[in-house]
Structures are given as structure tokens and as C-alpha cells.
Amino acid sequence: MECVLAEQQDLFSEIMPPAKPRHVERLQRVQEGLPDGLFLGTTSWSNRDWEGLIYPEGCATTDYIEHYAKVFKSVEIDSTWYRVPTAKAVEGWLRRTPEHFRFTAKIPRVITHEKGLIDCMGEMEAFLEAMQPLGKRLGPLLLQFPYFARGQDIHQSQNAVQYHEYWGEFLRRMAEFLPQLPIDEYRFAVEVRNGRWLRPELLDVLRAHGVALVLNNYYTMPDLTSTRGRIDPATSDFLYVRFLGDRKKMDHYVEDLIDRGIKQRHWDRLVWDRKDELGTWVRELRDMVGFEPKREVYAFFNNHYAGYAPGSLGLFARAWKDE
User: Fold this and answer.
1) Is 211 within a domain?
2) Are 73 and 41 in contact (CB under 8 A)?
3) Can you tell me the distance from the alpha carbon of 183 to that of 162, in angstroms, rounded to the nearest whole number?
4) Strand-by-strand arrangement of the 215-218 sheet
5) Which range is least confidently modeled, 101-105, 154-158, 200-204, 250-254?
6) Number of folded domains in the chain?
7) Is there a domain that residue 26 lies in?
8) Which of 44, 98, 291, 305 is within CB 3.0–4.6 Å of 243 for a Cys-Cys bond?
């Protein structure tokens, strides 16, 4: 009897395939009509909390990227910050995503954090060689730097000791590092998290090499309206935007919701209202590039921004079309 029921269930599954994850169609619809040059995505695709929402329930983690690419046009690869990807991993990314899909990626931390931009071209060349098979599917590569508190040394290697203690040393190292990059073959973006470092001197160095200044919504940084009131932050022929929020504050808030039984998963819905703020950012970005961007715009959303990266992306997409 049990065998017969199992066979019937298998037949039923073929006739009536499982329902789509709940948020897929909604997110696909809200992105319809967006400009070709606007690439929206999230900062990583590996999140079990998105099962049933973006991915099918019980989906193998190795299949996440295939389902992700059916909903979004781009992704920022987070894993490359920890290690250079294997050839097998890169081949899998290519095979599981469509031709129009774009990958951006964090440059390994050994370059930005451990070596502090000194004597690191060997590591950079190894990373670029690994990413090269992505070809035209490869978008900008991100040099992400942490917040540097004055007098604080978070680096351990001799080359990195105190390299960030003074703004001038960071600028000097950046000016020496960027000319070594193959900017005729790859595109690069630089993210700083010290608001006071948004100075003409840094912008001039980035602009001279066609490197983008990341426009980041981060708790230590001024908003885009304030930034544009002081400087022109466009330093390349593309824009790179990141909505990051405050990791520590969001983690604490979400854990409290879970402890009180209000949530069961960490990152499955928006918990902070950022709609007006996203609308302001969209207006500023549209003012910089127009509705149909003359330069490509890459915008990525983190769960820590408002609790659910795909939801923040959806609000941004709607605002872009409504403005």
C-alpha cells in the first residue's frame, strides 16, 4: 500500500510541479521595464533563509545561483574576499547563469586588509587569472576597505602596520597601487568607510585611472545627497552602489525579534522602513545618470540594510521606475 501511494505521489508531482518560491514572480515583475544598463543584485546569493522565497524549499545550496539568476541580473560575489575561486567554481557560475547575467566580485582580503596594497601584485594576478574565464559576464571588481579608526591597528602583517593610521599614507599607497592594475582589461571600484576620506585628492587618484568610488549606504558614511553637495563622486564610466546598513545594530534587532517569537528566520522579510531613504538615493542616482543611464549602474543590497536584501532591491526597482 505504501509503495502504491509513493508511486501516486511521484506521478502527482510530475503533473503538478511544486509552486514557485513565493517572492519570485513579484520580484520579476517589479524589475520589468528597468534600463538595460541598470544591474541590480544582492551581496552574495548563499542564504538558506531565502528558501521558499527565492529558492525552492529544500534546494541544494549548489543550485542557489541557478535559481537566483532567474530573478536578478547581477550579483556581488562575497566568497572571493576570503579566497581565490577554483576553476571548477567559476565554470559552475558560468554554466548555471544566462548570458546576460553579470558577476561582480570582492577582491581578496589578503590584498586590501592583510598586505595593505603593498607587495600584493602576485595575489592580484592570481585572482584576475581565476576570474578571467567569466569574460564579458564579469563586471567591476571591488576593493573593499574597512573603517579605519585613528590610531587603531587591526592588521597583523608587517607591511600593513599603521598603514591606515593617517589618511596621507592610505592615499599614497592607493596612488602607487592603482597604476599597476590592468585597467584596460578589467574595471575596478574602491570602497572607503571613513566619511572624511571623501576628499578631492582621493577622487583625483581614482579618476586618473578610471576607478569608481563606491557610493555606499553605510552607517559611518554621509548620505548621497550630502556627498554630492560637497564633491562630484562620479570617478569612472560606471557607478557602483552598495546598500549595507549597520551590521551590528541589525543583528541585535533581528535576534531580539527571534527571541520574542516574532520571527523564525533571520533574513526573510523587511524589518526597517527604508522606503523614503531609497527613494532619495534613486533621485540622486537618476540625477547623475538619467532614467536610461548613459553609464552602467551596479547596485547591490545586503540583508543588514533593512532585513531582507531582495525586498530592498524590489523597493529600489519600483522607485527607479516611479521617479
Assistant:
1) yes
2) yes
3) 28
4) 212-213, 188-191, 138-144, 102-106, 74-77, 38-43, 296-301, 238-245, 215-218
5) 154-158
6) 1
7) no
8) 305
